[in-house]
Every structure is written in structure tokens, then in C-alpha cells.
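Exam revision sheet. Question 4 asks you to relate a sequence to its structure. Input first:
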Amino acid sequence: MKLQLENIGIIKNATVQVNGLTVIAGENNTGKSTVGKVLFSIIKANNMAAANQHCQFMNNMVNLVFDSQISNQGEVIIQDKGVSIYSVKFSQHRCVRCCQPDSPPFFKESTFIQTPLVWDLVDFFDSVLRLKQNQEMTQNIAPFSIKYPYIFWDVYVKMTNTPVEKDSQTNDLVKNIRQIIQGGFEQHDKRIVFQRQNESILLMNVATGIKYFGLLQRLAENNHLKPENLLIIDEPENHLHPEWQLLLAELIVNLVNQHKVYVLINSHSPYLIEALKVYSDISIKEKTHFYFNELTHEGVKVKEVTDDLSFLFDTLSLPFQKLEQTVLGIS
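Answer key, C-alpha cells:
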């Protein structure tokens, strides 16, 4: 599948392949997250919309994910084998044309992991949910509106709603995650805690890196990491030691190779990107694409660097070179 963006957010133009593992690198404020958010929004809108309602649902998602600020004049096109299967045109930050030929959804579901700190909002979301349900039941009116990040809410629902039947195919994945974090996130007395041997640790007292892997554990257990689902991961290195970045990279490649999950990840960590390159070359080389977001005078352009990552690593290593020059007294 090929995703094309023109004048979306800060991105001037981009063509990105999503057929296994897609890695987008670049400096801060170069639109790395924008690609994932656009794809997340389109998949949600496309899967929820009925006939002739695609623009309406797309505008709903733009409001929830981008706070109604996506493009003054832009377009997104999704192609499969050279044939357009979805397109949406924006004007003044609203969908003005949405075209979807008669074809099945290109992804069954999408999940966007922006930060493991969503764990710290579990109690808040629980309270919001109870208040909404209570108002609907006792007052028979529409629930009140509280503004909160939709991406966080989506992950909260997926990690707290346990299905009746679990997918046994993810058992090895869950077991691997539990070994990494030496425990697991479990539901005790209607509250989720981190269980390590005989000790139950409250969420607020759990290390952020453990929470990150805990998100993947719960998503796997609740059947959200399965074939034809897209997992979008936003700069995970912000919360992980380099050693755990390597473990995450190996886990991600396993998700694509063994569990047939599509993964889009953006990063500016040389450790993580190099690890993704090494592990993907072993098993999913033909399904892996690397991109670099480059800021030009015209805006951000996304170029593919799959065949040669030297430019990517040279750019990401510039801060180390500047630091070394400072140590050596070179101006």
C-alpha cells in the first residue's frame, strides 16, 4: 500500500510505502507524527463511515486528532498496486471531497501509541466513563462533553476492555514481553496494577519504560495486535534505555514477521533505527522501508533512504559531532 500526502500539516509532499515495517526518521518538528496521525484518522473514518458519509467522518477525525487544523489546501491518496483505493481533499482544514472506490477496508483497525503516560490517565478515563454512563441512565440525556486526546482514549479502551475469548496466537508475544519487564499488567479489583511475582505495584509507581512494554502486552492480550491491523508508534525512544530500544526493535520485527501486523514507527534515535535495520534485514527486508523527513525552504519533504541509511545516520549524529568539537575547542 502506498500513502501519498501533499500539503498536509508541515509536510509539502510525501510518498510512503506501508506493506510491513515503515520507519520514518528526522529531526523534531519535521512532520514525522503527522504521517501516522493522517493514516490513523483515515483508517478510523473509513472503517466507521457508511455510504456517502466519508467526508463527515473524516472531519470528525480531523477534529479529534488534529483539533481541526490539518491543511488549508491539501490531498491524501492511498494506492494499492498502482490503483487509487482512497482519496481525500482538504480545503480550509475540512474535507471537501472523499472518494472511496468499492473495495474492502485497507486495514481492519489502527492503534496509535503516542506515549506510555496514557497509563496515568486510566483512573481519569474510568471516572469519565462512569459519569457518562450514570448521566445517560439516570437523566436520560446526552452525556456531558469533556475534551481529551482521542488518541489516548482509543488506547485506553483497547487496553482495558478485555475480550471474552483471547487469541492464543499472541501467547508467545505476551510471554516475551512479560520476560522483558519481569512481570505483567493485570486487573485486580477493577484496577490495573503491575504484578511482579507476589507484589502488586500501583500504576503511578511503575517505571515509564515498563509502562511502554505494558501497553504492547495489554494490546496483544486484548486481540489488537493481529493481521491486517496497523500499529503506529511515535518516538518510543523518549522513554526507553538504549538496551530496551534494541529489545523493542526485535519485538516490532517479530510483530511484522510472525504476527503479520503492519507497523509504522517514527524515531530520531540512531540506536533504535540501527536495530530495526539489523533485525528487519534478517527476516522482513523486502517488507521494510526507511524514510527521512527533510526540512527545505519549501517545507518538509519525505524521501526514501531504504537502500542507503548513511545520510540518515550522518544527520542524526550531527549533535555528537558538535559536542565533540566543543570538547576539542573547535568553533
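Marking note for examiners. The first strand starts at residue 2 and ends at 8.
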